[in-house]
Amino acid sequence: MSEHKFTNHLIHETSPYLIQHAHNPVDWYPWGDEALEKSRQEDKPILLSVGYAACHWCHVMEGESFENEAIAQVMNENFVCIKVDREERPDIDAIYMNAVQMLTGHGGWPMTVFLTPDLKPYYGGTYFPPVDRQGMPGFPRVLLAMAEAYQTKRDEVTSSADAITAELQKTNRFTPSDEILTSEVFNQAYAALLAGFDKTYGGFGRAPKFPPSMALMFLLRYVQRTNTPEALHMVEVTLHRMANGGMYDHLGGGFARYSVDNYWLVPHFEKMLYDNALLARVYLQAYQATKRPLYRRVAEEILEYVMRDLTDRAGGFYSSEDADSEGEEGKFYVWTKAEVLEILGGEDGEIFCEFYDITETGNFEHGQSILNSPHNLDSFAERKNLTIEALKQILSGGRKKLFYVREHRLRPLLDNKILTAWNGLMLTAFAEAANILGRDDYRLVAQRNADFLLANSCKDGRLLRTCKDGQAKLNGYVEDYAFLIEGLLAVYEATFEVKYFTAARTLADTMIEQFWDDQEQGFFFTSKDHEALITRTKDYFDNAIPSGNSVAALALQKISLLTADSKYQSCALAILRVAQPFLSRYPNAFGFMLCALDFYLSEPKEIAIIGSLEAHEVRLFIEEIYARFLPNKVLAAAEANDSSAGETIKLLAEKSAIEDQPTVYVCRNYTCLSPVNTPAELAERLIE
User: Domains in the chain, please, with CATH?
Assistant: First the structure.
């Protein structure tokens, strides 16, 4: 006998989010033929509910409504109820989120949408309370109104659904610009970012504040291009404030999703793989540009967190950790002063509490505090009559003790599905960190992840979206291809194993064949053989993650330089032309696309190393290359006697070791400067 009173059709799913709802009294179905056919056969509208495992308000609505038997009965009697994990099916989420935003002027999760049996939306919203509250209609009232409308006002419902669907189909039309792509776009984008910059706390706009990783990546490139001090200041203020704020986990590393306030103190506590991948990369880039130890430390702590808490034994990266534990948001992360003093004791405990803003009254809820470090280390040590080293020992020892205690708390829910796209982002972070920081352990993590994805998430040359417990499924989207291609290129540069480059190019060819729009240019979000939905979307906007088109525009340029095949460059250029009208006006929504344009408008350095790849000199060359922020480059290497390497990677063709010594060629536009044999000579080539 089951210990659960109810079990629905989600019980056989692999998504932790869907499994969470498998014992609701709601007769949930996953999205698929069975549910859609049931709607058509019974002439019942569909109630589509979309969320994700780390979503706090998704859990709230589940507890209030989906576990309420009376509300569930209304749902079951009047609708075919479908539950979707937005992380598994971003195609469905994107279409109906656009519809909700059209209908209500805002969006978010949980998302609730009412569809006709032919999948056209006629009403929608986000969170609905279980009863009428603060001007919001209660969920039962909404359910009955939507059911009655479908039954008694069918013509109106159909007309409205048709009109909404027509508008959705119009939103996916983009026309390439005829204007010449010039660097003036960067000046305009910089000016727009400067106008929205928070000069006190960093970041852009007002609360809630999300980490603006991609905008900061662009600004670092803008600094390199124009040497504008204010642009670097914007980056540094933001990185310092985020790292010192409560959004950063000072005990275990890693960033929460966003800050609910202007000053990065109180986070929404969920931790997402993609945020931490992008943040690790921007801190690494800032470290290259400035050599500030803080940025290296934060990047390493992010990656240590991922290795410890988000890595599968087989090498995949998990998706997220929830905001809630024991039914309370943030409970895992917060402390009372009494707790800290009991663990750390007397004077050291008091110093630790003061430095990390842990007070009697608390800076959060119920007298609890979120660790953050508003103090300057030097001035705080001087005020406490301590040496810097003594203060560092007190703080480091305190963090270790609190971390040990915290590890024995009930952890937030782990969403342990392995998403190809998000893994591609973190794969890139580890591979880049291996070269930038000279960390072989990061290189091994990157290789294991790449090998895992190629073995488990790639079938018959096609990518699958999600993998859990050895089961991979669902068609990959363009972001799965683009992000993994970028990751594989980064792993190639970290290992020089040609198999990773070959896999990247093969996937790029498949991506072009399956996703490219020959008529209006750019990549569709879904493949040509994907399930037919009410519209086929394209995504150019860099939101929480970069768009597939943005990453493809950069990765394809790199493949073109390495192979001397112009078809990849042509696709990248077409994407940039489509995005061009938006780049200067909405830089926060096109941060990564601006980076791809910067690559195009620069003269990327084409660097080839020939010689024994195990030689100490080669390691010194790589250290020299990555000692500086040099984002616009490609790097390839081969053994001196490897004549086949140039057949796969044209950049290596007809290049040899000079005087049997490891040799570096630095080229631009396929024209090379004279080769060099020493790091000092290489340094000169890199700044020419």
Answer: 9-170 (3.40.30.10), 187-325+415-601 (1.50.10.10), 333-408 (no CATH), 605-687 (3.40.30.10)
